[in-house]
Amino acid sequence: MSAHDELEGWREMATGLRGLQPEPPPTLRPAVLERVGLADAFITVAGPAGPLLVAFNGRGISATAPAGDEAGFVQRFLARHRRPLRRAGEPPARLLAQLERYLGSSSPGAARGPAARGEPPRFDLRGVSAFEGDVLRKSAEIPRGEVRPYAWVAGEIGRPAAVRAVGGALNRNPVPVLIPCHRVVGSDGRLTGYAWGVPYKRTLLAAEGADPEELERLGRHHTRYLGSDTTRIYCYPTCHNARRIGPAQRVAFRDGNAAAAAGYRPCRRCRPPAAG
Amino acid sequence: MDTPPELPARLARDLDGAFEELVRGHERLLFGLALRVVGNAHDAEEVAQDAFERAYHALSGYPAERVAAMRLRPWLARIALNLARNRLRRRTPPTRPLESADGEPLPLAAPAGGEPAAVAERHQDRELWAELLAGLPGRYREAVVLRHVEDLPYAEVAEVLGQPVGTVKTHVHRGVRLLRAAFEARKETVAR
Q1: How far apart are CA A88 and CA A44, in angstroms?
Q2: Do A32 and B53 count as a contact with CB atoms less than 8 A apart?
């Protein structure tokens, strides 16, 4: 082989090899940004009060919205989180299965308790303040089918005077339904406010087996707590223990002082405030 | 594409703000490298995604001075190469070696239904080179890909592979010789 042929052969190969640089698939970059939490994708899942849009990234679930206005969801998401949001190309099977398990069937009483429902999903709560985080985590402790007043959340997180701020923090909940801020209501049993509107809150609570009409009726009669005259313990009306009190044993109290005066102690499960 | 000189400093200051540019500037390299090691686009994309994700978490844990002084391209390529090798190790490779035990190139069979007139066409050319490259032993293939497909200088190839420059040069030269021989053999087979 001559030196000329040698050079030509070499050039041919160099060109051939250089031509092997492939175009990266267009899905690569968005997928990377979503995995590290610099962009988000959303899916639609069945919720207890209708279909939900659920946004997520590699750090966890970042936002929810009622289905119907996807463009508005994307716009609000961008304004609040300053990250792009797009519909997920490939539905993430693991997340879907986990959400399905966590949200469970909408029928009240079906598979009660966290064990049967599966672990709560991971959340991406960047942008949520320490106080807001405390409020959201506390509201997530309220069992399905039960409610607690704003003042209870404030007391439990050690900020008993911050009742209004608790309402504000819940209103800013980035992941309604999944973090159940709808389970926090007024001390008088009224549903007061909800970021997605009070009718949505009512539907959610009813779907979970809390009876909003009954709560409002008790509130109108100034009944905050229910006690049992056999155990001498008083509870919030939706507490699992309160529901087990038979009609003949049930005693109504308007506050902790009245209960204490009658010789009752607060339930250790739902922790209503003691006399004070 | 070369790493923009100011990118490490920007990553050190604001990782979240500059990370997309890091991906944009290196996705071609990481995907291309992974593709030549694992052999299919689906696995190569996953390898590239994993590599960028690891890079992000590593960068977020490093002190700012360290990030600002980093040589991003060889560092990223090395992460991707290791992930690609691991993935390859997990399955049985269907590749056929281009050399026999004594280091001599093995003749390649002519492609099924070979059309001599079309061999020169660019698309088929690319497939041919990809196929010949895939037949190289791994250590030669990695060196040839980094040097002659991705066009990295020898010093960076050595950094990616964790080998002395001399070793890298030897591997590139041997790989190129095997490729040339295989190419000539293929041309002869087709011409006959």
Answers
A1: 9
A2: yes
Q: Which CATH class is domain A129-214?
A: mainly alpha
Q: What is the pLDDT of residues A236-270, one digit of tens each?
A: 999 999 999 999 999 999 999 999 999 999 999 99
Instruction: Provide the terminal-to-terminal Cα distance of chain A, rounded to the nearest Å.
Output: 103
- As for the ipTM of the complex, it is 0.81
CATH topology of domain A29-117: Double Stranded RNA Binding Domain (3.30.160)
Taking 80 as the threshold, does the pLDDT of residue B96 lie above it?
Answer: no
Interchain CB distance below 8 Å, A32 and B57: no
- Strand order from edge to edge, sheet including A233-235: A250-253, A225-228, A233-235, A265-266
Higher pLDDT, A19 or A205: A205
pLDDT grade, residue B121 (50/70/90)? low
Q: Within 13 Å and on the Cβ side, how many CA atoms surround A80?
A: 19
Residues 3-62 in B contacting A (C-alpha not used; CB under 8 Å): 16, 19-20, 23-24, 27-28, 30-32, 35-36, 41, 45, 48-49, 52-53, 56-57
Say whether B28 and A35 touch across the interface (CB within 8 A): no
By residue count, chain A amounts to 276
pLDDT digits (tens, 9 = 90+) for A81-91: 999 999 998 77
**Mean pLDDT, range B4-12, rounded to an integer:** 91
Sequence spans of domains, chain A: 29-117, 129-214, 222-276
Give the CA radius of gyration of chain B: 19
CA distances from A169 to A121, A129, A130, A258, B91 (A): 20, 9, 10, 31, 51
B53-79 pLDDT, tens digit per residue, is 999 999 999 999 999 999 999 999 999
Q: Where in chain B is the domain with CATH 1.10.1740.10?
A: 7-89
- Crossing angle of helices B41-61 and A28-36, in 10° steps, is 40
- What CATH class has A222-276? alpha beta
Say which CATH class B7-89 falls into.
Answer: mainly alpha
Provide the shortest C-alpha distance from residue B61 to chain A (in Å): 14
Fold topology of B116-191: Arc Repressor Mutant, subunit A (1.10.10)
Please give the structure tokens belonging to residue B146.
């980094």
